Amino acid sequence: MSIFKLRPHHALCISFFEGKGYNDEFVKNMTEVIKIFESINPIVEITENADIICSKCPHCVNSRCTGEKVTFYDRKVLEICSPSKIIHWKDFHDSVRKNIIDSHRLEEVCGNCQWSYICKSKARS
């Protein structure tokens, strides 16, 4: 069984993804990752480095994110959820949903993200 590297904040991105992104390549990759995660509930390795989603992001250069905010987002998710480093996707996703989304802490974690308008509107519904 494959283990997929996953940045902590990407559990939030996956939760609210609606087919928008930085470019077509990114959107296609994100859509495929979500399909895989939903269909097989893989084991994920929580990492603060580039992951399966970053691999197609235009802000990922030489396997490093050039975005300044994402490190903060990752650390907040880790602080709030305290996941195991190796965990099944569904268990991690459930923890993020319970401890961040359902607990109304989304703004605290990533309120200044350029995509937060999508998440905020979906979290309310």
Notable characteristics:
single chain, 125 residues, alpha+beta, globular
What does this 3D model show about the protein?
The protein has 125 residues and is α+β, with helices and mostly antiparallel strands. The protein has one domain. The protein is 50% helix and 12% strand. It has 6 helices and 5 strands, in the order βααβββαβααα. The longest helix has 17 residues. The protein is globular. It starts with a strand and ends with a helix.
The order of strands across the largest sheet is 1-2-5
Total domain units: 1
E-strand count = 5
Number of helices: 6
Distance from N terminus to C terminus (CA atoms, Å) equals 35 Å
Please state the overall shape, judged from the principal axes of the Cα atoms: globular
Largest β sheet strand count, sense and barrel closure:
3 strands, mixed
Mean pLDDT: 92
Q: How would you spell out the order of helices and strands?
A: EHHEEEHEHHH
Q: Which percent range describes the beta-strand content?
A: 5-15%
Could you list the spans in which at least 5 consecutive residues all have pLDDT below 50?
A: none
Helix proportion range: 40-55%
Q: Rg to the nearest angstrom?
A: 13 Å
Q: Which class do the helix and strand fractions yield?
A: alpha+beta
